[in-house]
Amino acid sequence: MEMVAVYVDRGYRTGLGTAFYDRLVELERLDKLVFSHRTVIVYGPRGVGKSELVRYWLRGLQERGRIAAVYVDARRLRGQHLVRALETRGLLVDKKNLAERLLEVLKDLDDRSTGLLQLTYHAIDVLIDVIREYASTRIILFIDEFHLLPRYMHKSDPASKYLDALDDLEALAGLLAKDPHYSNITIVLTVSEGFTATDLVLSKLHGYSTAWMLVEHLDVDHFRALYKEYVSLKSCGVDVDEVLGLVGGTPGYLPELCMLDRNTVVEERVPMWIAEVETGLSRARNVLSAEIFRRELEPREVIRLAYELINNDIAPLREPHLHALGQILTTYNIVYPVYPRGRDGIRYKPQYPVYRTVIELGYREGVETLLDLDPHRVYQEAVAKLHGHKP
């Protein structure tokens, strides 16, 4: 029997070209948070549809006349900087035409210094004029993927990049929360970088009327419906079970995976996912060895700890080593934290099912490094888990 989606808006087209599916719970929560806070950070795994969710929500509010909105795409600004860098090297033949297509936002800003504060202050100056005319209107400044703003991307050290972005966030949230001049403005930020969900960021922004909203994977039924529509518009080299088994309900992964066939996914993409997890665990091993255990951890120990982390709720005060591991892997976008309502502890979930498979398989096989795992075995187990049976 064909599944009937709980909510499908076929009058709306997403960036994939499909209708908008589900997200009723998230839409209701976003509405409550925006109208009760001054800064709202929407975070979650890459590709789950955070940006599309906010755009859809904004459209609904604007159609009902509830708000005025300003939309800034940090990816476009980042692209603007890269295009100009190419221009200086004489690598663009048709510079004007390409630039006109890519660049539409805030052309007067120096890309090298454009961070959240510079961008926002510029936008707020414009918003103040709007507020004078529409004094009772809520103004939403939506900055999509703010971590990609050019100023942060010039840092070679990821930690330095995150700290710069956090400094800007703290100053901006404080401004909006405490200056009555900006009482009509709320800023909504989407971010795919896990650092915004760590304890450091939560503590820094505490008391500044800041809220976090987690967007997780689409459920299986709604993703299957979305996939069916997507492949009716475009061809796809992998089936829906393969996509779900590897990356879960992440619509943003469809353009990439659908361009590949199964062999290419196994031979090229799965090794990349394995390497991503290995990189995160290697960094965690160094930090835990130096700061928590005060001894050199064996790689197998860290894999075991990661296995425990993703299969249990963590009590930070009783299990500081696991909580520290979760924070590190959150920063490296391997896991994301979920704070269950009405329960103590934190659940750290892998960003994608394939990450869980890599960690669990590495633990069971007792490998010294995850790079020793067979990509074919990882693929088979990941897809088999979708149906709850062993490969």
TrEMBL record:
Signal peptide: none annotated. InterPro entries: AAA+_ATPase (IPR003593), ATPase_dom (IPR011579), P-loop_NTPase (IPR027417). It holds the Pfam family ATPase_2. Transmembrane segments: none annotated. Residues 36-206 form the AAA+ ATPase domain. One of its GO terms (molecular function) is ATP binding. This is AAA ATPase.
